[in-house]
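Why does residue order matter? Because the sequence determines the fold. Keep that principle in mind as you read this record.
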Amino acid sequence: MEIVSPHKTPTRSEITLIIKELVSKGALAWSKHSKERMIERGITIPQILNCLAKGTVAEGPFLSHRSGGGYEVALEKGTAGEWLRVVVCVKFNEKLLIVTVY
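Structure:
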């Protein structure tokens, strides 16, 4: 059963559930840009995973053609004393691409 349909843009609540499922499966990929921003801004993997698991949708989802297509979403959450925003692309191949963090 496909969880990321290319035929219907998911609602915010649907995309939140999809993201949580992909995180729980470990179906994550990290863009070079996201790794660079993590180092530059002192953001850790646990902070990002916390934001993905418990954050709220701030923007999106919207259809994106980045790296093969999917739905781009920005999630926000206060974590480790800082406000964090993580931009991800929920890929049609059922992976979660971490695009950037700030």
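The chain has a mean pLDDT of 90.
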